[in-house]
């Protein structure tokens, strides 16, 4: 469950909250003060307002009483949840703020938008099928060199997390860098209504969330909603290497800043060259004629692309080149995202367990091959979720990609492990039906799985729990 942001702000009056959400103040006075917002009754701080959200498997209205007992200033509740009202409240209902709204999820977004406008916060939106969390972190680091900047924590990127990030912004913050995720049509459009981005970046468009969006064209249409939301005075940061991202940027009224890892003609931000280093990457970027040699702590061609995209974002909003380089060089990889770690016997672990889709799987295998060089390499690959009717075919193609990566051994885990093994052909491969089966199998085989000095890649969708 989403929770409050960690950054302080000056708070709001109950009357402001009611007015911003179109709600009705049923308890407490309009001048009553609330110090923040939380959707988690277990972690609410005294003086905060508990926002009772309803979902398919939970109902926050059941925890209003608990939140008030923990010191919440009051609660925002849904009009159709009157029966779930906590009844007699500690100290008397008149001392607690109760605001009734038509829909608590929509009201949360409306209130976040009101707060953003009130403090004059500028928003840089980041979305895409791959790399959006790392790119968001890098863009925030770049902008943070120049201005006070707040950013989405982790991948807190949905209709709950994005509003809470905005509500954690302080009056002195000048930029918010917000990751925008989705798994159903219309989600990014609503996130943009809340965020009001004046700058936007789409990393790539790839086959992800196909169960909710149908096909890759559905994914492209959803991602394009970020560019479509930008005002004429805004700026779109466009990946020229992705034809669907290019198409999404056609006909925009706003300014465009383009980038290309492949060095496409006309790109304002280009990669001249890059090469693996033991614990990172040397990347040479050309930003509108200014050459930056960056010693990144990140590995993988995908992270070179993410860094280049962030450099283009800095160029788009006026961050000097030297500050862009300093921000990129200081950035460390997030847990579970192409992170190198030592293992016994001189082995190296490439931990990319946070999530997976066909494109990110191919990129991780390419990273493994480039960084391992002529050393032994092993991959433990889990199921890729939300691929719809084509899931089996995508997993078979993954097996073929693993075979092409020159692995000494492949371990396929999950529902489609047999299809991965089939795609891998005759290469050494172990197919296991679940993560639990992997944990049972591994102790007896780990020592012989990867020779000393070798590399081990571990990657799968979040639901596999391979971390």
Protein traits:
Protein-Tyrosine Phosphatase, Chain A; 23% strand; UDP-N-acetylmuramoyl-L-alanine:D-glutamate ligase; Udp-n-acetylmuramoylalanyl-d-glutamate--2,6- Diaminopimelate Ligase, Chain: A, domain 1; nine-stranded mixed sheet; six-stranded mixed sheet; alpha/beta
Characterization of this structure:
There is one protein chain. This protein has 467 residues and is an alpha/beta fold. It folds into three domains: 12-103, MurE/MurF, N-terminal domain (Udp-n-acetylmuramoylalanyl-d-glutamate--2,6- Diaminopimelate Ligase, Chain: A, domain 1, 3-Layer(aba) Sandwich); 120-330, Mur-like, catalytic domain (UDP-N-acetylmuramoyl-L-alanine:D-glutamate ligase); 339-464, Protein-Tyrosine Phosphatase, Chain A (Alpha-Beta Complex). The protein is 34% helix and 23% strand. The strands form four sheets. The protein has a nine-stranded mixed sheet, sandwiched between helices. It has a six-stranded mixed sheet with strand order 17-18-22-19-20-21, with helices on both faces. Helix 3 packs parallel to helix 6 (187-195), helix 4 crosses helix 10 (301-317) and helix 12 runs parallel beside helix 13. It is globular and about 70 Å long. The model is unreliable at 1-8 and 83-93 (pLDDT under 50).
């Amino acid at each position: 469950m989403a929770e409050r942001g960690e950054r302080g702000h000056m708070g709001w009056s109950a009357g402001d909250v009611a007015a911003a959400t179109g709600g009705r103040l049923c308890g407490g006075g309009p001048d009553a003060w609330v110090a923040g917002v939380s959707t988690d009754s277990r972690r609410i701080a005294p003086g905060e307002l508990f926002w009772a959200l309803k979902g398919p498997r939970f109902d926050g209205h059941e925890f209003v009483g608990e939140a008030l007992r923990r010191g919440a200033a009051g609660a925002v509740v849904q009009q159709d949840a009157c029966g779930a009202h906590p009844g007699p409240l500690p100290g008397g209902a008149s001392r607690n703020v109760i605001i009734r709204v038509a829909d608590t999820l929509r009201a949360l977004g409306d209130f976040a938008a009101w707060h953003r406008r009130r403090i004059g916060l500028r928003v840089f939106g980041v979305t895409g099928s791959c790399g959006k969390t790392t790119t968001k972190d890098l863009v925030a680091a770049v902008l943070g060199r120049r201005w006070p900047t707040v950013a989405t924590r982790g991948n807190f990127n949905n209709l709950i997390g994005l509003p809470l990030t905005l509500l954690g912004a302080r009056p002195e913050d000048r930029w918010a860098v917000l990751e925008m995720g989705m798994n159903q049509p219309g989600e990014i459009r609503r996130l943009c209504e809340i965020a009001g981005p004046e700058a936007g970046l789409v990393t790539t468009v790839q086959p992800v969330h196909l169960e909710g969006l149908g096909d890759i064209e559905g994914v492209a249409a959803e991602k394009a909603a970020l560019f479509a939301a930008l005002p004429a005075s805004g700026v779109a940061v466009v990946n020229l290497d992705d034809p669907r991202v290019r198409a999404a940027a056609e006909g925009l009224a706003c300014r465009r800043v383009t980038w290309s890892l492949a060095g496409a003609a006309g790109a304002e931000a280009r990669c001249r060259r890059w090469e693996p280093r033991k614990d990172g990457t040397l990347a040479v970027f050309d930003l509108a004629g200014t050459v930056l040699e960056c010693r990144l702590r990140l590995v993988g061609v995908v992270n070179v692309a993410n860094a280049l995209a962030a450099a283009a974002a800095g160029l788009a909003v006026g961050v000097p080149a030297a500050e862009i380089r300093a921000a990129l060089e200081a950035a460390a990889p997030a847990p579970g995202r192409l992170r190198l770690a030592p293992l016994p016997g001189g082995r190296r672990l490439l931990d990319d367990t946070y999530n997976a889709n066909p494109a990110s799987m191919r990129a991780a295998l390419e990273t493994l091959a480039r960084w391992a060089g002529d050393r032994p390499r092993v991959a433990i690959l889990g199921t890729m979720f939300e691929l719809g009717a084509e899931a089996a075919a995508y997993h078979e193609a993954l097996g073929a990609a693993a075979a092409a990566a020159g692995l000494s051994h492949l371990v396929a885990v999950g529902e489609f492990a047999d299809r991965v093994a089939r795609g891998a052909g005759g290469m050494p491969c172990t197919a296991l039906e679940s993560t639990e089966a992997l944990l049972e199998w591994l102790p007896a085989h780990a020592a012989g799985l990867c020779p000393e000095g070798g590399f081990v890649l571990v990657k799968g969708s979040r639901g596999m729990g391979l971390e």
